[in-house]
Write a structure and sequence with these properties.
The complex is a heterodimer of chains A (299) and B (66).
Chain A (H helix, E strand, L loop, with lengths): L11 E3 L4 E3 L1 H18 L8 E6 L3 H12 L3 E8 L3 H18 L3 E5 H5 L3 H7 L4 H19 L4 E3 L4 H14 L2 H6 L3 E2 L7 E3 L7 H11 L15 H15 L3 H12 L5 H9 L2 E2 L6 E2 L5 H9 L1
Parallel strand pairs in A: 3-4, 3-6, 4-5, 6-8
Antiparallel strand pairs in A: 1-2, 7-8, 9-10
Helix pairs in contact in A: 1-9, 2-9, 5-13, 7-10, 7-11
Chain B lengths: L1 E4 L4 E4 L4 E2 H7 L7 E5 L2 E2 L5 E2 L4 E6 L7
Parallel strand pairs in B: 1-7
Antiparallel strand pairs in B: 1-2, 3-6, 4-5, 4-7
Classes of the chains: A alpha/beta (299), B mainly beta (66).
Chain lengths: 299, 66
Protein backbone atom coordinates (compact mmCIF):
# COMPACT_ATOMS: atom_id res chain seq x y z
CA UNK A 1 0.00 0.00 0.00
CA UNK A 2 1.22 3.48 -0.90
CA UNK A 3 0.47 6.76 0.83
CA UNK A 4 -2.22 8.64 -1.07
CA UNK A 5 -0.23 11.87 -0.74
CA UNK A 6 3.48 11.05 -1.18
CA UNK A 7 3.38 7.46 -2.58
CA UNK A 8 5.73 6.33 0.21
CA UNK A 9 5.02 3.15 2.23
CA UNK A 10 1.64 3.38 4.00
CA UNK A 11 1.14 2.28 7.61
CA UNK A 12 -2.65 2.53 7.72
CA UNK A 13 -5.55 2.29 5.32
CA UNK A 14 -8.79 4.25 5.74
CA UNK A 15 -11.14 2.29 3.55
CA UNK A 16 -14.11 4.66 3.73
CA UNK A 17 -11.89 7.28 2.07
CA UNK A 18 -10.38 4.65 -0.26
CA UNK A 19 -7.01 5.86 0.97
CA UNK A 20 -3.87 4.81 2.81
CA UNK A 21 -1.31 7.06 4.49
CA UNK A 22 2.31 7.18 5.66
CA UNK A 23 2.74 8.35 9.30
CA UNK A 24 3.32 12.01 8.39
CA UNK A 25 0.34 12.31 6.07
CA UNK A 26 -1.90 10.29 8.37
CA UNK A 27 -1.35 12.94 11.08
CA UNK A 28 -2.18 15.59 8.48
CA UNK A 29 -5.36 13.66 7.59
CA UNK A 30 -6.48 13.53 11.25
CA UNK A 31 -5.73 17.22 11.77
CA UNK A 32 -7.72 18.11 8.64
CA UNK A 33 -10.72 16.03 9.71
CA UNK A 34 -10.81 17.78 13.10
CA UNK A 35 -10.34 21.19 11.49
CA UNK A 36 -13.24 20.44 9.14
CA UNK A 37 -15.52 19.20 11.93
CA UNK A 38 -14.80 22.30 14.03
CA UNK A 39 -15.38 24.60 11.04
CA UNK A 40 -18.46 22.89 9.55
CA UNK A 41 -20.29 22.70 12.87
CA UNK A 42 -18.96 26.01 14.26
CA UNK A 43 -17.70 24.23 17.37
CA UNK A 44 -15.01 26.67 18.52
CA UNK A 45 -14.14 30.30 17.99
CA UNK A 46 -10.60 31.72 18.21
CA UNK A 47 -9.72 32.74 21.75
CA UNK A 48 -12.30 30.54 23.46
CA UNK A 49 -11.23 28.50 26.49
CA UNK A 50 -11.79 24.79 25.96
CA UNK A 51 -12.03 22.08 28.61
CA UNK A 52 -11.38 18.61 27.22
CA UNK A 53 -12.74 15.63 29.15
CA UNK A 54 -9.74 13.30 29.61
CA UNK A 55 -10.00 9.63 30.53
CA UNK A 56 -6.45 8.48 29.72
CA UNK A 57 -7.76 6.54 26.70
CA UNK A 58 -6.88 7.01 23.04
CA UNK A 59 -9.75 9.31 22.05
CA UNK A 60 -9.44 11.95 24.75
CA UNK A 61 -5.64 12.14 24.59
CA UNK A 62 -5.66 12.29 20.78
CA UNK A 63 -8.33 15.01 20.94
CA UNK A 64 -6.30 17.07 23.40
CA UNK A 65 -3.20 16.67 21.21
CA UNK A 66 -5.03 17.64 18.03
CA UNK A 67 -6.77 20.69 19.51
CA UNK A 68 -3.52 22.02 20.99
CA UNK A 69 -1.83 21.37 17.65
CA UNK A 70 -4.56 23.38 15.89
CA UNK A 71 -3.81 26.31 18.21
CA UNK A 72 -6.69 26.19 20.67
CA UNK A 73 -6.41 27.09 24.37
CA UNK A 74 -7.23 23.72 25.93
CA UNK A 75 -7.02 22.43 29.51
CA UNK A 76 -7.97 18.91 30.61
CA UNK A 77 -10.35 17.52 33.21
CA UNK A 78 -9.88 14.02 34.61
CA UNK A 79 -12.64 12.43 36.69
CA UNK A 80 -11.55 9.69 39.13
CA UNK A 81 -14.20 6.96 39.11
CA UNK A 82 -12.74 4.69 41.81
CA UNK A 83 -12.70 1.59 39.62
CA UNK A 84 -9.78 -0.10 41.40
CA UNK A 85 -6.60 -0.66 39.38
CA UNK A 86 -8.23 0.58 36.16
CA UNK A 87 -8.70 4.08 37.60
CA UNK A 88 -5.23 4.05 39.20
CA UNK A 89 -3.72 3.38 35.77
CA UNK A 90 -5.92 5.76 33.79
CA UNK A 91 -4.87 8.78 35.83
CA UNK A 92 -1.21 7.94 35.23
CA UNK A 93 -1.78 8.21 31.47
CA UNK A 94 -3.67 11.49 31.82
CA UNK A 95 -1.01 13.01 34.10
CA UNK A 96 1.80 11.66 31.94
CA UNK A 97 0.36 13.27 28.80
CA UNK A 98 -0.30 16.63 30.47
CA UNK A 99 3.02 16.69 32.34
CA UNK A 100 5.13 15.93 29.26
CA UNK A 101 3.50 18.81 27.36
CA UNK A 102 3.16 21.34 30.18
CA UNK A 103 -0.64 21.32 29.93
CA UNK A 104 -3.06 22.03 32.77
CA UNK A 105 -5.05 19.05 34.05
CA UNK A 106 -7.91 19.55 36.53
CA UNK A 107 -8.59 16.50 38.66
CA UNK A 108 -11.90 15.65 40.34
CA UNK A 109 -12.34 12.44 42.30
CA UNK A 110 -15.77 10.98 42.98
CA UNK A 111 -14.57 9.36 46.22
CA UNK A 112 -12.58 12.27 47.66
CA UNK A 113 -14.87 15.06 46.48
CA UNK A 114 -18.35 13.48 46.57
CA UNK A 115 -18.04 10.50 48.93
CA UNK A 116 -18.84 7.67 46.52
CA UNK A 117 -17.40 5.80 43.56
CA UNK A 118 -18.87 3.92 40.61
CA UNK A 119 -18.75 0.42 42.22
CA UNK A 120 -20.61 1.84 45.26
CA UNK A 121 -23.17 3.55 43.03
CA UNK A 122 -23.84 0.31 41.15
CA UNK A 123 -24.19 -1.65 44.39
CA UNK A 124 -26.96 0.55 45.79
CA UNK A 125 -28.88 1.55 42.65
CA UNK A 126 -30.42 -0.19 39.65
CA UNK A 127 -28.15 1.74 37.30
CA UNK A 128 -25.66 -0.06 35.06
CA UNK A 129 -21.99 0.84 35.68
CA UNK A 130 -21.90 2.73 32.37
CA UNK A 131 -25.15 4.53 33.28
CA UNK A 132 -23.77 5.72 36.64
CA UNK A 133 -20.45 6.67 35.05
CA UNK A 134 -22.07 8.58 32.16
CA UNK A 135 -24.40 10.46 34.52
CA UNK A 136 -21.48 11.48 36.77
CA UNK A 137 -19.33 12.54 33.83
CA UNK A 138 -22.03 14.63 32.15
CA UNK A 139 -22.88 16.39 35.42
CA UNK A 140 -19.33 17.08 36.57
CA UNK A 141 -17.79 18.04 33.21
CA UNK A 142 -20.52 20.66 32.87
CA UNK A 143 -20.23 21.83 36.49
CA UNK A 144 -16.43 22.20 36.37
CA UNK A 145 -16.59 24.05 33.02
CA UNK A 146 -19.11 26.55 34.43
CA UNK A 147 -17.22 26.93 37.72
CA UNK A 148 -13.90 27.71 35.99
CA UNK A 149 -15.31 29.86 33.19
CA UNK A 150 -14.61 27.61 30.20
CA UNK A 151 -16.59 28.44 27.07
CA UNK A 152 -16.91 24.87 25.88
CA UNK A 153 -16.49 21.22 26.91
CA UNK A 154 -14.92 18.98 24.24
CA UNK A 155 -15.33 15.22 24.44
CA UNK A 156 -13.55 12.46 22.53
CA UNK A 157 -16.65 10.87 21.02
CA UNK A 158 -15.58 9.58 17.60
CA UNK A 159 -17.47 8.44 14.49
CA UNK A 160 -17.86 4.89 15.84
CA UNK A 161 -19.19 6.13 19.20
CA UNK A 162 -21.73 8.39 17.53
CA UNK A 163 -22.84 5.75 15.01
CA UNK A 164 -23.32 3.22 17.84
CA UNK A 165 -25.33 5.70 19.93
CA UNK A 166 -27.43 6.55 16.87
CA UNK A 167 -28.13 2.87 16.26
CA UNK A 168 -29.28 2.50 19.88
CA UNK A 169 -31.47 5.60 19.67
CA UNK A 170 -33.04 4.44 16.40
CA UNK A 171 -33.68 0.93 17.72
CA UNK A 172 -35.74 2.53 20.51
CA UNK A 173 -36.97 5.48 18.38
CA UNK A 174 -36.04 7.71 21.29
CA UNK A 175 -37.10 11.10 19.89
CA UNK A 176 -35.57 13.19 22.70
CA UNK A 177 -32.16 11.54 22.40
CA UNK A 178 -32.29 11.73 18.59
CA UNK A 179 -32.98 15.46 18.86
CA UNK A 180 -29.98 15.93 21.16
CA UNK A 181 -27.60 13.78 19.12
CA UNK A 182 -25.45 16.34 17.35
CA UNK A 183 -21.73 17.24 17.24
CA UNK A 184 -22.59 20.54 18.97
CA UNK A 185 -24.97 21.15 21.84
CA UNK A 186 -25.25 24.92 22.22
CA UNK A 187 -24.80 26.65 25.56
CA UNK A 188 -27.99 27.34 27.50
CA UNK A 189 -28.98 28.38 31.03
CA UNK A 190 -26.95 26.03 33.28
CA UNK A 191 -25.18 24.32 30.37
CA UNK A 192 -21.77 24.97 28.82
CA UNK A 193 -21.53 24.33 25.05
CA UNK A 194 -20.52 20.73 24.30
CA UNK A 195 -18.65 19.70 21.17
CA UNK A 196 -17.37 16.46 19.61
CA UNK A 197 -14.48 17.38 17.29
CA UNK A 198 -13.55 13.72 16.51
CA UNK A 199 -16.89 13.00 14.87
CA UNK A 200 -15.26 12.66 11.41
CA UNK A 201 -12.63 10.16 12.62
CA UNK A 202 -13.14 6.46 13.35
CA UNK A 203 -12.05 4.58 16.42
CA UNK A 204 -9.31 2.77 14.53
CA UNK A 205 -7.94 6.09 13.27
CA UNK A 206 -7.74 7.45 16.81
CA UNK A 207 -5.81 4.43 18.08
CA UNK A 208 -3.51 4.67 15.04
CA UNK A 209 -3.01 8.41 15.66
CA UNK A 210 -1.78 7.67 19.20
CA UNK A 211 0.60 4.94 17.99
CA UNK A 212 2.02 7.15 15.23
CA UNK A 213 2.40 10.17 17.56
CA UNK A 214 3.88 8.10 20.41
CA UNK A 215 1.01 8.94 22.76
CA UNK A 216 0.95 6.43 25.59
CA UNK A 217 -2.68 5.61 26.38
CA UNK A 218 -4.68 3.09 28.37
CA UNK A 219 -5.40 0.18 26.03
CA UNK A 220 -7.14 -1.95 28.66
CA UNK A 221 -10.93 -1.84 28.59
CA UNK A 222 -12.86 -0.74 31.67
CA UNK A 223 -13.62 -3.94 33.64
CA UNK A 224 -17.11 -2.65 34.42
CA UNK A 225 -18.00 -2.07 30.73
CA UNK A 226 -18.12 -5.79 29.88
CA UNK A 227 -21.44 -6.58 28.22
CA UNK A 228 -22.16 -2.90 27.54
CA UNK A 229 -24.75 -2.67 24.78
CA UNK A 230 -22.83 -0.04 22.83
CA UNK A 231 -19.95 -2.50 22.43
CA UNK A 232 -22.44 -4.85 20.77
CA UNK A 233 -23.68 -2.09 18.46
CA UNK A 234 -20.09 -1.31 17.49
CA UNK A 235 -19.38 -4.93 16.61
CA UNK A 236 -22.47 -5.00 14.39
CA UNK A 237 -21.52 -1.74 12.69
CA UNK A 238 -17.93 -2.92 12.15
CA UNK A 239 -19.22 -6.11 10.50
CA UNK A 240 -21.21 -3.87 8.13
CA UNK A 241 -18.22 -1.60 7.59
CA UNK A 242 -15.97 -4.54 6.72
CA UNK A 243 -18.41 -5.58 3.99
CA UNK A 244 -19.28 -2.09 2.87
CA UNK A 245 -16.72 0.60 3.79
CA UNK A 246 -18.31 3.95 4.53
CA UNK A 247 -21.47 2.51 6.09
CA UNK A 248 -20.91 4.08 9.51
CA UNK A 249 -20.21 7.54 8.09
CA UNK A 250 -23.21 7.33 5.74
CA UNK A 251 -25.46 6.29 8.63
CA UNK A 252 -24.32 9.09 10.96
CA UNK A 253 -23.88 11.95 8.51
CA UNK A 254 -27.07 11.06 6.65
CA UNK A 255 -28.92 11.39 9.96
CA UNK A 256 -27.26 14.70 10.78
CA UNK A 257 -28.03 16.13 7.33
CA UNK A 258 -31.51 14.75 6.74
CA UNK A 259 -32.89 13.32 9.98
CA UNK A 260 -31.77 15.35 12.97
CA UNK A 261 -33.92 18.42 12.33
CA UNK A 262 -37.05 16.27 12.46
CA UNK A 263 -36.35 15.49 16.13
CA UNK A 264 -35.00 18.87 17.25
CA UNK A 265 -38.38 20.00 18.58
CA UNK A 266 -38.53 16.99 20.94
CA UNK A 267 -35.14 17.89 22.42
CA UNK A 268 -36.10 21.59 22.65
CA UNK A 269 -39.27 20.74 24.57
CA UNK A 270 -37.26 18.64 27.02
CA UNK A 271 -34.79 21.49 27.61
CA UNK A 272 -37.54 24.08 28.06
CA UNK A 273 -39.12 21.92 30.77
CA UNK A 274 -35.95 21.95 32.90
CA UNK A 275 -35.89 23.49 36.35
CA UNK A 276 -33.06 23.88 38.85
CA UNK A 277 -31.80 21.27 41.33
CA UNK A 278 -32.58 22.26 44.92
CA UNK A 279 -29.19 20.98 46.09
CA UNK A 280 -26.66 21.93 43.41
CA UNK A 281 -28.53 24.30 41.02
CA UNK A 282 -27.85 22.06 38.00
CA UNK A 283 -30.61 21.85 35.36
CA UNK A 284 -33.07 19.04 36.11
CA UNK A 285 -36.61 17.89 35.40
CA UNK A 286 -37.23 17.08 39.07
CA UNK A 287 -36.72 18.75 42.45
CA UNK A 288 -33.30 17.14 42.94
CA UNK A 289 -31.05 16.25 39.97
CA UNK A 290 -30.08 12.69 39.11
CA UNK A 291 -26.47 13.21 40.18
CA UNK A 292 -27.42 14.50 43.64
CA UNK A 293 -29.85 11.58 44.04
CA UNK A 294 -27.10 9.14 43.06
CA UNK A 295 -24.69 10.80 45.50
CA UNK A 296 -27.24 10.66 48.34
CA UNK A 297 -27.84 6.97 47.87
CA UNK A 298 -24.23 5.87 47.21
CA UNK A 299 -22.24 7.95 49.70
CA UNK B 1 6.04 -15.32 14.84
CA UNK B 2 5.09 -14.27 18.35
CA UNK B 3 1.66 -12.64 18.59
CA UNK B 4 0.38 -10.68 21.58
CA UNK B 5 -3.36 -10.08 21.90
CA UNK B 6 -4.96 -7.70 24.40
CA UNK B 7 -8.13 -7.54 26.51
CA UNK B 8 -7.41 -10.05 27.92
CA UNK B 9 -3.66 -10.13 27.35
CA UNK B 10 -2.45 -13.43 25.87
CA UNK B 11 0.27 -14.70 23.57
CA UNK B 12 0.41 -17.25 20.78
CA UNK B 13 2.76 -18.47 18.06
CA UNK B 14 1.82 -18.41 14.37
CA UNK B 15 4.08 -19.73 11.62
CA UNK B 16 5.23 -17.09 9.09
CA UNK B 17 5.69 -15.60 6.64
CA UNK B 18 2.15 -14.30 6.44
CA UNK B 19 0.50 -11.07 5.33
CA UNK B 20 -1.28 -8.94 7.94
CA UNK B 21 -4.65 -9.56 6.30
CA UNK B 22 -4.04 -13.34 6.21
CA UNK B 23 -3.02 -13.28 9.88
CA UNK B 24 -6.23 -11.50 10.85
CA UNK B 25 -8.29 -13.93 8.77
CA UNK B 26 -6.60 -16.88 10.48
CA UNK B 27 -7.40 -15.41 13.90
CA UNK B 28 -10.95 -14.53 12.75
CA UNK B 29 -10.48 -10.86 13.64
CA UNK B 30 -12.25 -8.00 11.88
CA UNK B 31 -9.59 -5.61 10.46
CA UNK B 32 -11.91 -2.71 11.36
CA UNK B 33 -11.59 -3.59 15.04
CA UNK B 34 -7.81 -3.87 15.49
CA UNK B 35 -4.42 -2.35 14.73
CA UNK B 36 -1.43 -4.52 13.92
CA UNK B 37 1.90 -3.34 15.34
CA UNK B 38 5.18 -5.10 14.40
CA UNK B 39 8.02 -4.11 16.72
CA UNK B 40 6.99 -0.52 17.45
CA UNK B 41 5.66 0.20 13.97
CA UNK B 42 2.09 0.26 12.74
CA UNK B 43 1.80 -2.00 9.67
CA UNK B 44 -0.71 -1.87 6.80
CA UNK B 45 -2.75 -4.93 5.89
CA UNK B 46 -0.68 -5.88 2.81
CA UNK B 47 2.62 -6.06 4.75
CA UNK B 48 4.27 -9.50 4.89
CA UNK B 49 5.29 -10.53 8.39
CA UNK B 50 8.24 -12.94 8.60
CA UNK B 51 8.53 -15.83 10.98
CA UNK B 52 10.75 -13.88 13.41
CA UNK B 53 8.34 -10.93 13.71
CA UNK B 54 7.09 -9.82 17.13
CA UNK B 55 3.53 -8.62 16.62
CA UNK B 56 0.92 -6.95 18.81
CA UNK B 57 -2.71 -7.05 17.72
CA UNK B 58 -4.34 -4.17 19.56
CA UNK B 59 -8.12 -3.81 19.84
CA UNK B 60 -9.41 -0.33 19.06
CA UNK B 61 -12.96 -0.60 20.33
CA UNK B 62 -13.72 1.06 23.63
CA UNK B 63 -17.13 1.06 25.17
CA UNK B 64 -18.86 2.41 28.20
CA UNK B 65 -20.60 5.62 29.04
CA UNK B 66 -21.75 7.87 26.23
Amino acid sequence: MKCRVCRGPAVIDVRRHNAAFCPEHFVTHCREQVRRAVHDHRMLEPGERVLVAVSGGKDSLALWDLLVDLGYDVDGLYLGLGIDQYSDESIRYARGFAGARGLKLHEVDLGDDFGFDIPAAVAVTHRSPCGACGLSKRHLFNAVALEHGYDVVATGHNLDDEAAVLLGNVLRWDAGYLGRQHPVLPAAEGFARKVKPLVRLGEREMAAYCVVQGIDYQVEECPMAAGNKHLGYKEILNALEDRSPGSKAAFLFGFLERGHARFAADARQEREALGVCRKCSAPTTTDVCAFCKLRERAS
Amino acid sequence: MKITLRNPKRELEVRGPLSVVALLQRLELNPESVLVIAGDELVARDVRLDDAAVVEIRPVISGGAS
